[in-house]
Amino acid sequence: MKIEKNLEEFESLGDEHIGTSESTPMRHDAFRLSNEEKIDIIKDDVRHIMETLGLDLSDDSLNGTPNRVAKMFVKEIFGGLDPKKKPSASTFENKYKYGEMLVEKNITVYSTCEHHLLPIVGKAHIAYISNGTVVGLSKMNRIVDYFAKRPQVQERLTIQVVKELQEVLNTKDVACVIDAKHLCVNSRGIRDIESSTVTSEFGGKFKEEATRREFLDYIKLDTKF
Ligand SMILES: [Zn+2]
């Protein structure tokens, strides 16, 4: 049975920031065009938006904006749509036999809300318990950054980070908490400047109360360096 949603329903889904799927919804022909071809098309689209808004693009300050935005979309803020940019899965053997929880906290998150295309800015905290494999610490930052560089829903970002690390580390014992501000909430709409959104995903042993509590206690520590 095909479920049809009218435009109004889609509008309110977006406004409530409800994502509809766990993986990023991609078109089947997503990679038919090269990045350079995409930049070329998007450049014209951005120009069209700006001109429709009434801006005079012959002004020196605005002249380069369409090209700059197009390059930024394809290569930077939405660069994580390109699977070729996925961080390589290099892992190490856990030589020290460290069997406790490893926590990497305060990983900077710069993402973009897929419902308004406005920034999501926050911190990710990740933990895992090694079953013999470890990853370099910077790898966790790179995985967060890769999935953040897409139009996102914070819940999906959290799940994607956990799933990727579960795969790389070959264990279910991975957890991630993301605490982030959504500029679409903070700067427009209801303009709630102070609020932030916390999402979490707990895999394997992190579903157990004691393990989950240990992780949450670590990330509560207010370390400033
Ligand atoms: Zn939004």
Automatic annotation (TrEMBL):
List its EC numbers: 3.5.4.16
Q: Where is the GTP cyclohydrolase I domain?
A: 42-219
Q: Tell me, which GO biological process terms does this entry list?
A: one-carbon metabolic process; tetrahydrobiopterin biosynthetic process; tetrahydrofolate biosynthetic process
Q: Which residues bind Zn(2+)?
A: 113, 116, 184
The protein's annotated catalytic reaction(s) are:
GTP + H2O = 7,8-dihydroneopterin 3'-triphosphate + formate + H(+)
Q: Does the keyword Zinc apply?
A: yes
Entries under InterPro entries matching the protein: GTP-CH-I_C/QueF, GTP-CH-I_N, GTP_CycHdrlase_I, GTP_CycHdrlase_I_CS, GTP_CycHdrlase_I_dom
Q: Pathway of this protein?
A: Cofactor biosynthesis; 7,8-dihydroneopterin triphosphate biosynthesis; 7,8-dihydroneopterin triphosphate from GTP: step 1/1
Record key words, sorted? GTP-binding, Hydrolase, Metal-binding, Nucleotide-binding, One-carbon metabolism, Zinc
The entry lists its GO molecular-function terms as: GTP binding; GTP cyclohydrolase I activity; zinc ion binding
Spell out the GO cellular component terms annotated for this protein, sorted alphabetically and separated by semicolons: cytoplasm
Pfam families from the UniProt entry: GTP_cyclohydroI (PF01227)
Quaternary state and partners of this protein? Answer: Homopolymer.
Question: To which protein family does this belong?
Answer: Belongs to the GTP cyclohydrolase I family.
Q: What is this protein called?
A: GTP cyclohydrolase 1
Q: Which gene encodes it?
A: folE
